[in-house]
Amino acid sequence: MSVWKAYIDSPTANPQTSNLILYEYGYCGYLLEYDKPHALPYVQRFRKHVETLKNQLPRGHYQMYMSAVYVYELRLHESFHPAKAMSLAKEATKLAPNDPMVLTYYGTSLFYAPKPFGSKQEALEWFNKADQYFRAPKWQYCWLREANTMYIDQCHEKLKK
After folding, report:
1. Secondary structure of the chain: what % helix, strand, coil (to 5)?
2. 6 with 46: CB under 8 angstroms?
3. CA atoms of 70 and 76, how far apart (whole Å)
4. 118-136 pLDDT tens trace
5. pTM check: above 0.85
6. Separation in Å, CA 94 to CA 60, 97, 103
7. Pick from 32, 36, 31, 40: which is nearest to 1 by CA?
8. What are phi and psi of 12, to 5 degrees?
């Protein structure tokens, strides 16, 4: 993740691109898991970039990223909007039903959400939908493709028990 941090922190990183937002999204999630004390400024910057690019992001991505912002803020005890986060994630799938990033994000939301909001079985269905679209060559090197495969394996493992 040091490479991602260097990219995100680089003075030449362009906050007007969706590439930077994708890396911020992943890096914030990493920080919340492994280095929570340093996450808040990155989450705040991520929120600012998402809000700035609202009308320039692909369909469903604004809702997906704002959902992530609410989840990250919840984990930092900065705000408490779990229902809003889940609602935005679901809305994103309606706006971008063929976008594997959006489908994976919703699957991830279902995977981690407590019952009755979440479900490993339902998450698996969304990960499988995303997997179909991730097979296109343009997604070959996207880190979310690998993450989606990992979640499919984890769902199978959890559902066996």
Report:
1. 75, 0, 25
2. no
3. 10
4. 899 999 999 999 999 999 9
5. yes
6. 8, 6, 10
7. 31
8. -95, -5
